[in-house]
Design brief:
Elements: H1 5-10, H2 15-23, E1 41-46, E2 50-51, E3 56-62, E4 76-81, E5 87-93, E6 100-105, E7 111-119, E8 122-124, E9 134-136, E10 139-140, E11 144-149, E12 212-217, E13 249-251, E14 254-258, E15 272-276, E16 282-286, E17 293-302, E18 307-320, E19 326-334, E20 341-349, E21 357-358, E22 364-370, E23 375-380, H3 381-385, E24 404-406, E25 411-416, E26 424-428, E27 433-437, E28 445-446, E29 449-456, E30 465-472, E31 481-488, E32 493-498, E33 503-508, E34 514-517, E35 534-536, E36 539-542, E37 548-553, E38 559-564, E39 580-586, E40 589-594, E41 608-612, E42 618-622, E43 634-636, E44 639-643, E45 650-654, E46 659-661, E47 664-666, E48 669-671, E49 676-684, H4 692-695, E50 702-703, H5 710-719, E51 731-737, E52 743-750, E53 756-761, E54 767-775, E55 784-793, H6 810-840
Parallel strand pairs: 2-11, 20-24, 48-55
Antiparallel strand pairs: 1-3, 3-6, 4-5, 4-7, 7-10, 7-11, 8-9, 12-45, 13-14, 14-15, 15-16, 17-18, 18-19, 19-20, 21-22, 22-23, 23-25, 26-27, 27-29, 28-31, 29-30, 31-32, 32-33, 33-34, 35-36, 36-37, 37-38, 39-40, 40-41, 41-42, 43-44, 44-45, 46-49, 47-49, 49-50, 49-53, 51-52, 51-54, 54-55
């Protein structure tokens, strides 16, 4: 097992032991002894023995616990004597409350290493009444030997990534599976998520086809029919102001969404629904006092009593002032597994900017930037619940369940900043900076200068001004509309655009200095600049009304590639392209779809597109899914879920699905040298295929088809489009285990649009064969196999006609039969003569 920082923190001693030692201290009127108390230093090495170059965890400390939860022993060192008799000193180290700590050591040569801990004399102040400071004597540990061998020891073996269908929960030991997973915690377009933060990590294997796993009727949808005209014949789809499918969350493979529109406060009978993202099974539906799901959290708590991860769903209710302004929020946390209430946070600060920022352990941070009075605060959701102020053992646990907690105890700092910084806050990042600009106003600032500034959010330098830079805009656009666009804290670039120049301008996030501008975009980009680009993979992407996705190098502003979302059926009145909006980027892919802000939302033939995020190559398109007014589609565990608001108001889940392969062989008992036919079906067994409206049309199962056929096939299966005439099936490999225990492939077949495949081959030897057929899987499907058996027998030997034994003589064979024949002939002639005479008489 590879050593990690959590193991170092654990240092092998349970806290209960430390607490029992603390309890041994007198609690009143104890006398302070002048003689130093003896100590007993120790050192342990794990693993032992170990291979050269492998990590060893050193357990360093003394047997005495400290006098309080947050107390520590300091100044410990370790002497290392190597096999060549050279030495080195490690440290100094400080312990935790148990009296121990850990450190990583990597041996570099074969042989026996020697380790010894040295504890320096020191005094420990005791917090108990009547107990003063106690001196502790220095001590050295016994020498510990570490055997280092040439061959490495075995760590816990890596668990390979799955090649078959998989589902949650994933065994916690399968760390290598982490790239497959992904959660969606933040609501794009609401206060809980910074603007344009659409890069989603994880989700390896994100969809590369339009394969549907399941669908779910969210609201009345589809063609209205009756006396409604064709142009207005679609059921109401909602819009940005009604708010269908907003604030959707994905945690650990479960999709959580608000059942009804966001209109009204509160909405009568508003409920939250949980659905298994892979199966479409509805797990629960809860009414949380008619409040709406706002965001989620997956939070890793590292305390001295507990190291674990917790998941929460949150509602957020604003507390407003006399003039309607938001003063604070009340958050209620719910259990994602059951939907039950867990705890409440009151007085959660109304940030400026009013967004949640997620730190590395899933901690939620909120910032308040007061440029008028010159103050910056950082609020920490974990500190609000466990402020670590009491020094008690409970501080090492995570115990908010059933509590109502005042969130005002959650501030990490409240520091001064320069007064009067111009403009407004644009964005922020935990442990980085808050960024502001005069271009942050809507509809945008005007020239001739723009000022941008940044102040540190790092704990050690919080509130310090990083830069405050004024830039003179190009003279041709001194009266232009300058709009804040986006920032990449990773790439250290922020972007401002100008509506009239049709360009983006890049600035150094470390200095605020101008560094590049892009080429001019098409005129329809006039309407793009309010929405900003999206940033991922060292590129930033522009889109919107022009229907052109242009990828620029974020460090140079140079165009890398362009994709046109072409309107093939002349539905758009002002362009040859569909206006578009980005969904998100993940797993090296960029997802976008049709989007426009006008009444004719149900344009025909609009499509979503999946692009290679670095090259712009089209991976696939889907012309029957329109999510624009249905909230942003979300992704988790490599599965996309979104509301098809434009066409039928169903939630669809897209992703890789399971299949079933069947096989039979004939004849099952054959003769050596004869051919055998192998045949069967490969079918799609995704949960959606079991719905009655699908199963009734495909009583023998929905055929599995090629990746190239997925888009048209899925719209036929789930949207009642005409059956495609050019659909192709999937490859099947036929293998045998012959009577001599040899395994080999005998050929391949491709199923047809009905899922059927067949193949003939001639067995080579006599005996029993095991036949295996294998569909290896594709981008749309996981693979599947099937087996059957045949027996090949020896052909029977050819048989000759029986030979009659002939021992008769020539007299018997020829003369006797001839005489008999003559006698018979004379008798016949005589009978004929008699008959003739009678006739004459």
């Amino acid at each position: 097992m590879k050593t990690n920082k959590n193991q170092i923190a654990a240092v092998f001693i349970i806290i209960a032991f430390a607490v029992s030692l603390l309890a041994a201290y007198p609690t009143s009127n104890a006398q302070t002894t002048s003689a130093p108390k003896p100590t007993y230093a120790f050192i342990g090495t794990t693993p032992n023995p170990v291979g050269v170059g492998q990590e060893v965890l050193l357990h360093i400390g003394i047997s005495e616990a400290t006098a309080g939860t947050y107390f520590k022993w300091t100044g410990l060192t370790v002497t290392v004597t190597k096999p060549d008799n050279t030495t080195e000193t490690l440290g100094p180290f400080s312990t935790d409350a148990t009296g121990g700590t850990g450190s990583i050591y990597v041996p570099t040569m074969v042989g026996t290493y020697k380790f010894q801990t040295h504890f320096p004399a020191q005094t420990m102040a005791i917090a108990f009444a009547g107990v003063g400071a106690i001196p502790y004597a220095a001590s050295d540990s016994p020498v510990t030997s570490l055997v280092v061998q040439q061959n490495p020891i075995q760590y816990f073996p890596a668990i390979p990534l799955p090649t078959e269908y998989w589902n949650r929960p994933i065994n916690a030991q399968f760390e290598q599976w982490a790239p497959l997973t992904g959660n969606w915690l933040r609501a794009i377009g609401s206060y809980t998520m910074p603007p344009d933060d659409k890069y989603i990590p994880g989700n390896q294997g994100a969809p590369e086809t339009a394969h549907v796993l399941w669908n779910y009727q969210y609201a009345e949808g589809g063609l209205a029919g009756g006396n409604i005209t064709a142009e207005g014949g679609g059921m109401e789809m909602g819009d940005a102001y009604v708010g269908k499918f907003l604030n959707t969350v994905v945690i650990n493979g479960v999709l959580y969404f608000n059942r009804y529109d966001s209109t009204g406060a509160p909405v009568s009978e508003q409920t939250v629904v949980a659905i298994n993202l892979k199966t479409g099974e509805e797990l629960w539906e809860k009414n949380w006092n008619n409040t709406r799901l706002s965001f989620g959290q997956v939070f890793h708590w590292k305390g001295f009593n507990l190291d674990g991860t917790f998941a929460y769903l949150f509602t957020s209710t604003p507390v407003t002032g006399a003039f309607g302004q938001t003063l604070s929020y009340t958050w209620n946390a719910y259990d994602p597994l059951t939907g039950r209430w867990l705890y409440q946070l009151i007085n959660v600060p109304a940030g400026n900017p009013d967004y949640n920022y997620y730190g590395p352990d899933g901690i939620i941070y909120r910032y308040t930037v007061d440029t008028t009075n010159g103050r910056l605060t950082e609020w920490n959701s974990s500190r609000a619940i466990n402020p670590e102020l009491s020094g008690s053992v409970a501080d090492g646990s995570w115990t908010p369940i059933g509590s109502i907690i005042d969130a005002r105890q959650g501030y990490d700092y409240n520091v001064s900043i320069p007064h009067g910084l111009p403009g407004a806050v644009c964005n922020a990042q935990f442990d980085d900076c808050v960024l502001g600009s005069t271009s942050s106003a809507f509809p945008g600032a005007t020239g001739p200068t723009l000022t941008s500034w940044a102040i540190s959010t790092k704990t050690a330098t919080a509130g310090q001004l990083i830069f405050n830079t004024t830039w003179t805009v190009p003279s041709d656009y001194a009266q232009g509309t300058w709009v804040w666009s986006d920032v990449s804290f990773t790439d250290r670039v922020f972007i401002i655009s100008c509506k009239e120049s049709l360009r983006f301008y890049g600035f150094d996030l470390n200095t605020g200095n101008y560094i590049w501008q892009t080429e001019q975009e098409p005129y329809l980009a006039y309407y793009d600049k309010w929405y900003g680009p999206m940033i991922a993979y060292g590129l930033f992407y522009s889109e919107r009304q022009s229907g052109m996705t242009i990828a620029y190098n974020i460090h140079t502003g140079q165009r890398e590639w362009t994709y046109n979302c072409t309107d093939y059926y002349a539905q758009v009145l002002w362009s040859n392209n569909w206006p578009t909006v980005f969904w998100f980027a993940t797993d090296g892919k960029l997802y976008l779809s049709y989007a426009t802000h006008h009444p004719n939302l149900q344009a025909k033939g609009a499509y979503m597109t999946c692009l290679n995020a670095t090259t712009g190559e089209v991976i696939y398109t889907n012309s029957w899914f329109d999510s624009w007014w249905g909230g942003t589609p979300v992704i988790g565990d490599g599965i996309i879920a979104g509301l098809n608001a434009g066409y039928d108001n169903r939630i669809y889940a897209f992703g890789k699905g399971a299949t079933e392969t069947t096989v039979q062989a004939s004849p099952t008992i054959s003769v050596n040298g004869d051919k055998v036919m192998v045949q069967g079906y490969v079918t799609d067994i995704a949960p959606g295929t079991k719905a009655y409206d699908v199963a009734a049309r495909f009583p023998q199962g929905v055929p599995a088809v090629s990746d190239a056929s997925q888009t048209e096939w899925m719209q036929y299966v789930y949207m009642q489009y005409p059956r495609p005439t050019n659909a192709t099936g999937v490859p099947v490999t036929i293998s045998v285990l012959d009577p001599n225990n040899n395994t080999y492939s005998v050929g391949t077949a491709t199923s047809d649009a009905n899922g059927y495949y067949s193949f003939t081959f001639t067995p080579k030897v006599e005996g029993q064969y095991i036949l295996s057929t294998n569909f290896p899987g594709s981008k749309a499907y996981y693979g599947s196999t099937a087996e059957t058996a045949i027996n090949v027998e020896n052909a029977p030997e050819a048989t000759s006609q029986p030979v009659i034994q002939n021992n008769t003589s020539a007299y018997d064979a020829y003369f006797v039969p001839a005489v008999v024949a003559i006698i018979i002939a004379i008798a016949i002639v005589g009978m004929v003569m008699v008959l003739l005479l009678r006739k004459r008489a």
